[in-house]
């Protein structure tokens, strides 16, 4: 069986910084409330007219270049997002076109919300392991700012999210730097706890209309406390599964890169794993929750900051809507 390595990795966030103070003027909130409850100081929002694919395209190009290949060398593009440019088709064929790829490669999207990037790693890893593909572009990216209610009524969710994405190129390797394992899970009993219903076939005969919009069914809804409670159980649980699977202990791990949803969630996960916050990467204060984007963005920044290096063991974990959750161990 082949092994898969991350041969190229990059991220893109919009230039526009939206601080908590900016939100105070829109949402009847305070910098103090947001920082205390979530650890977020600011996030990035795209400028009007910028789509998800446009935002993440520079990251795709950089990841491809870093992997030492041309876009035409890709065998597949797989995107994880909940904020695709169009309702359909998916963003992957759009990126194929924007990258100028003329060959008829495989290109499709998956929907696994905040856990999407680790789901993508699992899918990509399988394609490399079986020998089906040699160069796969994985993209986790979301423009959450266009899903939010930016009025006081939306403040409970609106302050938490930001825009951003990342891309990774997977390739086969015979070396020692590779994805050791991936573990993905879901519990559909959590569907109603975190969702945006419209546009959706549940509203047959129209997936979306003015009545659906007036009732706010197109906006994200969450039961924040339930989400919190499940996140702090499922992420440690999946880290422990991954460690056990690889016969490793948390002491062997250089860095845990967890989905950046909330600083208090990260702190609780660290406590439950009995690790110091030095071992838990944090950049939520800068970007908020970018959904499918948090893991690749955090990986890029942690790498640039020297938080892990070649040969180190890193653990990824995420939790999100579905509920879905996941973990992965990589020897860098
Ligand atoms: N500004 C000011 N006040 C607010 C705001 C806001 N933005 N939002 C809510 N409040 C008020 C509420 O109205 C409520 O007021 P009340 O007591 O007068 O009724 C009070 O603050 C407390 O609200 P709660 O919802 O109970 O606050 P809680 O302490 O649970 O924190 C939070 C809310 C931050 C959402 C928390 O539950 C959480 O982090 N949950 C995890 C959710 C999450 O991360 N979701 C992201 C997607 S899933 C994922 O990525 C894992």
Descriptive report:
- The chain has 332 residues and is α/β, with parallel strands linked by helices.
- The chain is 33% helix and 23% strand.
- It has 11 helices and 13 strands.
- The chain has helices spanning 20-27, 31-38, 52-66, 91-98, 116-129, 155-158, 210-214, 224-245, 263-273, 284-287, 294-304; strands spanning 3-12, 17-19, 42-44, 76-80, 106-110, 136-143, 163-173, 178-186, 194-195, 221-222, 255-258, 313-320, 324-331.
- A 5-stranded mixed β-sheet has the order 1-7-6-4-5, with helices on both faces. Strands 8-13-12-11 form a 4-stranded mixed β-sheet, with helices on both faces.
- Strand 12 (313-320) and strand 13 (324-331) form a beta hairpin.
- It is globular and about 55 Å long.
- The chain starts with a strand and ends with a strand.
- The structure holds acetyl coenzyme *A (ACO).
- Acetyl coenzyme *A is lined by residues 29, 33, 37-38, 114, 155-156, 159-160, 194, 222, 224-225, 227-228, 231, 259, 261-262, 289, 319-320.
- Helix segment tally: 11
Distance between the termini: 19 Å
Q: Please, what is the CATH homologous superfamily of the largest domain? A: Thiolase/Chalcone synthase
CATH class of the largest domain: Alpha Beta
Mean pLDDT: 97
Indicate the percent of residues in helices. 25-40%
Q: Uncertain regions: pLDDT < 50 for 5+ in a row?
A: none
β-strand amount:
15-25%
User: If you consult CATH, what is the topology of the largest domain?
Assistant: Peroxisomal Thiolase, Chain A, domain 1
Which CATH-level-2 architecture of the largest domain? 3-Layer(aba) Sandwich
Number of domains: 2
Order of helices and strands: EEHHEHEHEHEHEEEHEHEHHHEE
Ligand inventory: acetyl coenzyme *A
Reading side by side through the largest sheet, how are the strands ordered?
Answer: 1-7-6-4-5
For the report, how would you describe the main beta sheet? 5 strands, mixed
Structural class of the secondary structure composition? alpha/beta
